[in-house]
Amino acid sequence: MTLQWNERALKTAKYTLISKTRSLSFGRYLYLLQIACAKEGEEPAQVWLKGQCKNTGGFAHAEQGFLQELSLYQQWSAHSPSFLLPYQIVSIDQMNLRPVNASRTQPDDVLQIEQLYPQFLLLPHGQSAFFENPNQLSCNDITSIILQAVNALEQLAALGYLHADVKAEHFLSYEGQVRLIDFEQSILINSEMIRPMNATPRYMAPELFHGQAKSVQSDIYALGIVLLEWLSGRRLSANSYEEWAYLHCQRLIIDLPEPFRRFLPLLQSMLMKQKMQRMRDFSQIKACLIAENA
Questions:
Q1: Which residue numbers delimit the Protein kinase domain (predicted)?
Q2: Are 120 and 95 in contact (CB under 8 A)?
């Protein structure tokens, strides 16, 4: 489950800073690396490098999330879970990071090497699992993608964790299989730790707006929103946190175009407003998909 890029490959790679301005403001540095392959004539490999600054003031959650993600990758690697991308944790002295990317002009782009945590997370490039237009796929292909996404979350739950930040961009297709990324907010299932609510309103289950803790059911709801947007071809929209709360708690419309209406009962069960009426675990989603496809 590990990548094996050596120091020479990392030092000669082409680094391009990709971080959004908001991410840079809380100390997150994300690079896209073009690494030359060993075999002549092969295209350079695309690899993502994720790093974090120390002492980011009011953004301590970013530091904590980054360090947690590193720890979880190391912890889970002993189980060789298939939901993880191959990864490599590298040190800052193995790389040739430049102080600033010449293509960016914002003052926040200035990289102070000494302010960075000494370890970085290296992950291979993967395409979004929900990138393809479902209108170009068969129902069997769509079912297969959904099953793989559910399997990934189920495997994570089997290790005792919620993803707790389920969104479309956190499912990647790599070597023909759906994998999960971004475990900064992952928490133990039934964790009794009191944490501030840190979630994306677009994917928040109704109970989260009422101060309840994240759960398997809130991850299921978030996946339901991912599938609803993918299959309907429309993104939900709201202009404020209050509007998102109103949308999820009262006026969410669950409907699909005719070619995908076979998936409507599944989405209705995943997106029930009342947590106790929603599907209780990922095995129920799989059973529903298999029954629909029988």
A1: 15-294
A2: yes
Does the predicted model carry a pTM greater than 0.85?
Answer: yes
One domain for residues 279 and 135: yes
State the CB neighbour count (10 A cutoff) for residue 41.
5
Number of domains the chain is built from: 2
Helix (H, G, I), strand (E, B) or coil at 57: helix
DSSP state for residue 44 in the 8-state scheme: P
Among the residue ranges 40-44, 127-131, 205-209, 285-289, the one predicted with the least confidence is 40-44
pLDDT digits (tens, 9 = 90+) for 34-68: 988 766 667 888 999 999 988 767 778 889 999 99
Final residue of a domain: which of 63, 95, 124?
A: 124
Q: Is 36 exposed, middle or buried (0-12, 13-18, 19+ CB in 10 A)?
A: middle
Domain boundary among 72, 105, 124: 124
Count helices and strands in the chain by DSSP H and E runs: 9, 10
